[in-house]
Amino acid sequence: MSLAIFDLDNTLISIDSDHAWGEFLLEQGAVDPVAYREANERFLADYNAGTLDMAAFLEMALKPLADNTPEQLAAWHQQFMASKIEPHILPKAEELLARHRTRGDTLLIITATNRFITAPIAERLGVDYLIAVNPEVEQGRYTGRVSGIPSYREGKVTRLNAWLENKDFTLDGAWFYSDSHNDLPLLEVVDHPVVVDPDDTLRKIAEERQWRIMSLRD
């Protein structure tokens, strides 16, 4: 029995849920149709290039959480799950999760997308443990700020190690599945790195290091 760790966006689902949430907000008329769309596209390109300014991105991404009531956000997220997420859940990803469950492994999703967006997705996938960017909450409302260290690049390793301090699990025999070169810091510390439908940069590195490469989309 080992820890089976999964990236979420473009790994277990075939889209970037952060970007998709931005598109959803645009469709609802909840954000500026010009400035927000431009920023949403720019930040996605920066992420793919490995040059994302995470602080600047989160300032944009978390503002709509602060600008709207929990009730409105909950209603939107229900629509978002049905229209944007459910069609992009990969059957082979669910099969992979099921295989690790059958082995008795402990399943964990670790993502740079915030918990508001990703907690319902993890629940839908039947994954009990989630490490995500934590939006700050005060008196029942989101503040638009981040609580703690974002789980991005090296921050994924930092957050995972902090999580392990309070658990009976270790990284001995651990698996990590990811599509992105941004996840190299975590791929490098597990015993079983697996790249899933990788970007070109990660594919090249995986081939050089003879890491397993797989697809959940074929």
> What's the tally of helices?
9
| CATH top level label of the largest domain | Alpha Beta
The rounded distance between the terminal residues' Cα atoms is: 28 Å
CATH superfamily of the largest domain: HAD superfamily/HAD-like
CATH architecture of the largest domain: 3-Layer(aba) Sandwich
The portion of residues assigned to helices is 40-55%
Low-confidence stretches: none
Mean pLDDT: 97
> What kind of sheet is the major sheet?
7 strands, mixed
**Quick one: how many beta strands?**
7
Radius of gyration computed on alpha carbons: 17 Å
Shape: globular
Strand order in the largest sheet: 4-3-2-1-5-6-7
- The share of residues in extended strands comes to 15-25%
Number of domains: 2
Q: Encode the helix/strand succession as letters.
A: EHHHHHEHEEHEHEHE
InterPro entries: HAD-like_SerB, HAD-like_sf, HAD_hydro_SerB1, HAD_sf
Organism: Vreelandella songnenensis
EC number: 3.1.3.15
Protein name: Histidinol-phosphatase
Short description:
The protein has 218 residues and is α/β, with parallel strands linked by helices. 49% of the residues lie in helices and 19% in strands. The protein has 2 domains: 3-14 and 89-214, Rossmann fold (3-Layer(aba) Sandwich); 17-86, de novo design (two linked rop proteins).
